[in-house]
Write a structure and sequence with these properties.
This protein has 6 helices and 11 strands. It has 210 residues and is α+β, with helices and mostly antiparallel strands. The chain has a 6-stranded mixed sheet with strand order 1-3-5-4-10-11, with helices on one face. Strand 8 and strand 9 form a beta hairpin. The protein is globular and about 55 Å long.
Length: 210
């Protein structure tokens, strides 16, 4: 991350307001690792990391491309990169890895998708409330517990359906909403404002950084 952007972010505040240190994950550093965008290049640019055998991506690049093609073009406009990314345990607290991230910094608008365990058992921090489970009910994962630990168990087709029709669509909606709000804020102030925003999507909740 360029030093001037990092300083501006740190000056803006060290916490997200959700009992989580916004600088802890260094989430904006992801953008510095992206390939540059060349004039006339077709967007978004796709990147897929190699991952261990005990992990897999429910969606491949072609699946994501097909999902984006079915969404309104205006909502997808401006997405520059899609990264199927290998998680680094050092980046996340208690090993709790998000399902996806949306990161906007400068000209980059990045959607990050993280892999799932091949066993298709999603560990949870606690038993979800019914209102949380209702969001996932149409994908029919099975809620189980063992020795006080809760999991969601999925079938491969359920995981793929969820990622295509819920996760990707959610990230695109986050992108469209943020861009609209940012443009409206610039319009009100009559000046160009620095773009810096990120949203992590977990099973239970979202965490936003700005």
């Amino acid at each position: 991350m360029p030093k001037e952007r990092q300083a501006r972010w740190q000056k803006a505040g060290a916490t997200s307001g959700r009992s989580h240190l916004a600088t802890a994950d260094k989430i904006f550093d992801r953008v510095a690792l992206l390939p540059p965008i060349h004039s006339g290049e077709r967007l978004p640019i796709y990147l897929t990391d190699n991952i261990p055998k005990d992990l897999f991506f429910p969606l491949e690049e072609t699946d994501i491309s097909a999902t984006l093609a079915a969404l309104p073009a205006d909502d997808c406009k401006g997405i520059t990169h899609i990264w199927l990314r290998r998680p680094l345990s050092s980046e996340f607290r208690s090993g709790r890895i998000p399902l996806a991230e949306y990161i906007a910094l400068g000209e980059a608008a990045l959607i990050v998708i993280y892999p799932w365990p091949t066993a298709l058992r999603m560990p949870l921090t606690k038993k979800p409330a019914d209102k949380v489970l209702n969001r996932y009910r149409r994908f029919a994962p099975k809620l189980t517990s063992h020795k006080g630990k809760w999991h969601l168990e999925w079938l491969p087709e359920q995981a793929k359906d969820f990622c295509a029709n819920e996760l990707i669509r959610h990230e695109v909606a986050t992108h469209a909403e943020f861009r609209a709000k940012h443009a409206a804020k610039e319009s009100r102030r009559g000046e160009e404002l620095p773009i810096q925003y990120a949203n992590q999507r977990f099973f239970e909740e979202n965490l936003e950084y700005w």
